Amino acid sequence: MTTDVPLDTSARDRLFCDILNRELVCALGCTEPIAVAYAAALARETLGAEPERMQVGCSGNIIKNVKSVTVPNSGGMRGIEAAAILGAVGGDPTSSLEVLESVGEDDLARCRELLQTPGMCEVTLEQGVPNLYIKVVAEADGHTAEVVIANHHTNVVLRALDGEELQGSHAAVQGCMDAKTSAHEQDELLSLDAIMDFARTGDISAAREALERQISLNSAISDEGLMQPWGAQVGKTLLASRGEDVACRARARAAAGSDARMNGCSMPVVIVCGSGNQGITACMPVVEYARKFGVPHEGLLRALALSDLVAVHVKSYIGALSAFCGVVCAACGAGAAITWMAGGTAEQVGATVVNTLANVGGIVCDGAKSSCAAKISAAVDAAILGHDMAMVGRSFHAGEGLVQQTVEETIASMGYVGRVGMQPTDVEILNIMIGKTRV
């Protein structure tokens, strides 16, 4: 998706930095349970009292991504009920996606107590809503608060008390239902050529702090995943097998961050495309290859900006949540940045993206859980293979599967499959996960 009206360089730089600052925000744990906790914390704040009852309506993709992942700072609790009640009991709504950072032992004890209270929290599957949709209705002292989040993890489209709209509107909620596209309008100005030009000569100063934070926080949780036995220990397994190989280290560093965050680590991460796993995947392979290539810090920041923006560009065709595993989009970004740091041409950078999509574009998302780390490893491995092929002039060609004549057409075709073609797949994955379909 490109615009017919070119931006001048300074306007483009401001826009791309705005996109980076919008995307590169801190989150504590998996973003779906955190978004549920955030909505519940807002409902509690709106009521001015601890809810006596809550109804939490979620899209299938939210249910899918919360079902098997540990709620951060919860002492090992899982599920939408735990996320919602903990958010309502001890969450700080001013902290956004770090809403559970300040919860204490008293909050955990109260949450466990309320989880055992019949009728305290009812969860329902909402039909005909955006892929990312959370509605919390909370009652206390004869009053009712309603909070709706849609399309993006912190996008509050309605906050009301006893029917009075305090933020957003009921019309905005209906507008989300009627929307026919899930892509950000401003992301339509992104193209691989424009991103590479920005990385090469653009003014990145307005996004420098966000990029520095991404390197710092995501490196820290990656280190944690390599040092401690989190989850299935995919990162530790990789590093123990071939740690002297930069390709293996790149996979291990990315996977290790997911090992930790999918299994309840309370360390924050910097997300991209609404996902901590994608934020880690877009970052850690770039850090490892920058070290191998001897790239100075300024070059690393520019390569990381390229990686993040490519991830956003690819993901914008698909939308917030789908059956298409989003780490593939982030791996496209990482692979593009690796080729760019290696001195690859624009054609080679594009070939890296095409090669990656042609390889692992079919990885399905069956919820947030420990195996996400393994999918990250597979996606990064495909990106590195795509880079290696591109650097010696090899790539997959138009007409081979979903590969089209240009990289932009290939990104669009894969995005269409993820957004439209995989909708029935998404439904069946959810049906199997919740036991509605027996296989």
What is the H/E order?
A: HEHEHHHEEEEEHHHHHEHHHHHHH
Helix content: 40-55%
Number of helical segments?
A: 17
CATH superfamily of the largest domain: 2-methylcitrate dehydratase PrpD
Calculate the terminal CA-CA distance, rounded to whole Å: 39 Å
Instruction: Identify the strand order in the major beta sheet.
Output: 3-2-4-5-6-7
Radius of gyration: 21 Å
Kindly report the average pLDDT value: 91
Largest sheet: 6 strands, mixed
The CATH class of the largest domain is identified as: Mainly Alpha
CATH 2nd-level architecture of the largest domain: Orthogonal Bundle
Low-confidence stretches: 1-5, 180-186
Specify the structural class: alpha+beta
In terms of quaternary structure, the protein is single chain
**How many separate domains?**
2
What's the number of extended β-strand segments?
A: 8
What fraction strand? Answer: 5-15%
